[in-house]
Design a protein that fits this description.
Blueprint lengths: L8 E4 L13 H13 L2 E4 L4 H8 L1 H6 L2 E4 L4 E4 L2 E5 L6 H6 L1
Parallel strand pairs: 1-2, 2-3
Antiparallel strand pairs: 3-4, 4-5
Length: 97
């Protein structure tokens, strides 16, 4: 890999950084803080930003480059919502489900 290339690390929360719906372990939190101080680090999760804060901690969330919440439908940068998609299923899909 070329040294001048910037690395960007993207992690899933549930099942990767934490057990499903659980809190990150202190040792991994420390590693992620160090990594995010040297490289852009982002997370991807199906949960709301409030759940991300509960699981990985406010300090790490504040250190993220981006946070892709709600399956990527809510995108945060510097804890500010920068993009949000809304999708409403058609009635036929609701009826089917």
């Amino acid at each position: 890999m070329l040294k001048d290339k910037k690395l960007h690390f993207i992690f899933d929360v549930d099942g990767c950084l934490t057990p499903k719906f659980q809190v990150i372990q202190e040792q991994l939190h420390s590693i992620m803080m160090k990594l995010s101080s040297r490289h852009p680090v982002s997370i991807v999760t199906g949960s709301e930003i409030s759940n991300s804060i509960s699981q990985i901690g406010e300090k790490l969330v504040n250190n993220l480059y981006m946070s892709f919440n709600c399956l990527g439908n809510a995108i945060y940068q510097n804890r500010r919502l920068i993009k949000q998609n809304f999708w409403y299923p058609e009635q036929s899909l609701i009826d089917l489900l």
